[in-house]
Amino acid sequence: MNNTHTLLRPYNEAEIEDLRQLERAAHRRYLSLKEYEKFATTPAINPERFRTGMTRVAEYAGHRAGYIIVQPLDDMLYIASLMVDDGMSGKGIGQRLLMWAEEYASATGASGTCLATFRVPRWNAPWYRKLGYAEMPEGRIGPNLQAILDRHATFLDMTTRTAMWKPTGACPE
């Protein structure tokens, strides 16, 4: 992982549309997977989500390269969105953003970080698994995360999705 050129900073209101464009570009990766092609053209995250969560922007070698939005949820820190620019994959940007979220969770006393993601694409659940995340036991899913999963079920095939978590202080395998 090469984080020597990655700087994390808070977002500013003026760049929300640029961050949404970055998300649209990141979603183009789904074009390479026949079953997931439709996600390449899904609308970008609602601008309000940047305001209701805590957002960090990653700059790599002076260029905006990704972002993460987190929010407290149940007794954890929920990763609402983690995006890396399509052309910046493999530079450790996503991992640096994720490390920030884990450090923030620890600093705020959260029991861990959690998220909902696709099971299959290598940049979804397999990537998180490599970084120490595991499928969340059903009994560990709190009411607010369950509400998010229930909302996802209205427009996604939930057999393709999984809730994952990493307890605070856990190390990658």
Report what the structure shows:
The chain is α+β, with helices and mostly antiparallel strands and 173 residues long. It is built from five helices and seven strands; from the N terminus they run E-H-H-E-E-E-H-E-H-E-H-E. A seven-stranded mixed β-sheet has the order 1-2-3-4-5-7-6. It is globular, with a radius of gyration of 15 Å. The mean pLDDT is 89.
What keyword list fits this structure?
5 helices, 7-stranded mixed beta sheet, 173 residues, single chain, alpha+beta
Low-confidence stretches: none
Mean pLDDT: 89
- Please state how the strands of the largest beta sheet are arranged side by side: 1-2-3-4-5-7-6
Strand portion: 25-35%
Q: Helix/strand/pairing class, anyone?
A: alpha+beta
Q: How many β-strand stretches?
A: 7
Give the gist of this structure:
With 173 residues, the chain is an alpha+beta fold.
Topology:
Elements: E1 6-10, H1 16-27, H2 48-52, E2 54-60, E3 63-73, E4 76-84, H3 93-107, E5 112-118, H4 125-130, E6 134-135, H5 143-152, E7 161-167
